[in-house]
Amino acid sequence: MRKQKGAEESMETTATAADCEIARLPKELLSASISRTSPRDACRAAAVSQAFRAAADSDAVWSGFLPADLPPLADGELDDPAPPSKKALFVRLYDRPALLADRLVSMWLDRESGVKCYMLSARALQITWGDTPQYWRWIPLHNSKFSEVAKLRAVCWLEIHGKLHSKMLSQNSTYAAYIVFKIAAKSYGLDLPFQDASVSIGERKSTCQVCIYDSDDSEDYDFPREDNAVLPQKRADDWMELEMGSFYNEESDDGEVCISLTETKGGNWKKGLIVKGIEIRAKK
Questions:
Q1: What pTM was computed for the model?
Q2: 22: buried, middle or exposed (CB in 10 Å: 19+, 13-18, 0-12)?
Q3: Average pLDDT score over residue span 97-119
């Protein structure tokens, strides 16, 4: 027992000595090393010691995690108060989305990777007959970055498109696109036939069948689960989301990412879809 205890104490002493030796490294060298990791690793490093915290929290580290090409943000988005450091700016941009200058698109950073993510508001989408009150109605949205959402009154031709230039995204990163929506209490025609979803960038295109009907809204409805249609998921903010496809944004890509949701073949009337927008975010 004494030998075992002595060995453990020796190991602890060795580890402590090693930590002290590392802590003696110049702050610039520690910062350079930590900057080659990830935001999560930098936060872990900050808990090691005061020397590591000083290096891990430095602007030299977090400047590398922040995208060099952040898009122009709307006035006042980074005020109240303004982030005092690069780390504070990173935290601000993953903690809550910021509106772009046109106030129709918001962006944020993925917490783990720093990848730029976006949400196209309903107003930023191309919705067939979206400006025709007979078919779609725009209703106010409170406690949100966006001021309104699109509510489907009745159409037999559902067609929603969104676009974002690939240069606005992080290079060499895998993304997924999601439509964010709710189903009104009075709805119909959103179950069958399934909808078609697609995501394309350049010559690459992915397609799938989806079903936006929320089965939890009807206890008496037998929700169709045959085939391989993608089904919606509940979000923490009480909205629903449905993955429409994924893609890899290569460094050489220079074109638009096109996302679409359509149902134009069945001819049946549809009602009750409430569209908040389309998210394009890092695929986990």
A1: 0.85
A2: middle
A3: 96
